[in-house]
Specification:
This protein is mainly alpha-helical. It is built from 19 helices and two strands. A two-stranded parallel ribbon has the order 1-2.
Amino acid sequence: MEKTEYAPLADVRKELKVKWLRPKIDGKTLQEINKRSDLQGWIQSAGHLGIWLVTGIFVYVFWAQSLWLPFVIALFLHGTVASFFVGVAPHELGHGSVFKTKILNQIFLYIYSCLGWWNPFDYASSHTYHHRYTLHPEGDRENLLPLSPMVGPFFLVQLFTMNILTQPGRTFSKGGLLSTIYSTILGAFGKVGSQDIPSQEWLQALHEDQPQEHKNAIWWDRFLLVFHGIVIITSVLSGYWVFIFLISFSPFIANWGGYVLGMTQHTGLKENDSDFRKCVRSVRVNPLAEFLYWRMNWHTEHHMFAGVPCYNLKKLYNEIADQMPEPRSLFGAWKEMRETWYRQEKDPSYFYDTPVPPILETKKGDRQSEDSLESSIGDLAPKGLVA
């Protein structure tokens, strides 16, 4: 397959203008839904960490008592919880919309990014482009379509045990444990991997576009290596090797949950369309999965109004439900994705064209303008990308 050459991102910002189609919603209602809450922020942020700590305690107790079957089960649950540290928790905190108090967003952003081996500086640049140019490849290569939802046997084993060597993907992700360590070491020296891998080409383009964020990313990768190096070395030397799995390796254990939910966001949908309902998918899941996923199952609503706190996205959907496609079930989303992929193997230009209801007409005297509240992506954009 011939490698695609893309224009510099600085040129893209000047030339590519996407006029996004959004449902009509009363301005006062949107203002109310957009309000951030420190209480809700604590429930979400400290709650997720709390579940991780509780499962970690069980892992340690079973390890200390040499109860190996309960140990394995507890470690599986611990990893399932921790897998949402990778790109999920830092995502919403990166938007700066979880807490009303800004410093609390920053504190928890760094905590989750540290535990999840996540670089919030690279991601802030990438995700700003992702929201401004969703699935327009010139300006958004955080997800490059078509994405395959098919899982080979080796990858499937990794998803339910330890993710060691995730195959190089087409999304913004460091992958498995070894590939993450490798890319973090490269990042600490200001380098990226092979430009033939789309995610690395995208990262290089971001570094060239946002040199200050690249400098911050380098120092963050160095910090990650020092922090996790101390955890690993101390655990080995003390004989408490279990803490390597409790802390540093936990995001790579039982990655099935994050994968099953995360793949539904854009897979099989339409590129180069200004209607979020065509390029993003929302799914209904159980309350625990929704909590661990930081409500990103309401992904279409998140893209439409990215400044709305995650805990208010369901309220947002209820307000605009008559202008939205019905959220898929998780099973229905995967069925749709797989059927789409089978057709894309024969016809790469094919995509699933989501049926959508009409956008309501604005009544005279109640004209809704494209204001900063509608188009806000929170505090996500780094200084070099603030509009």
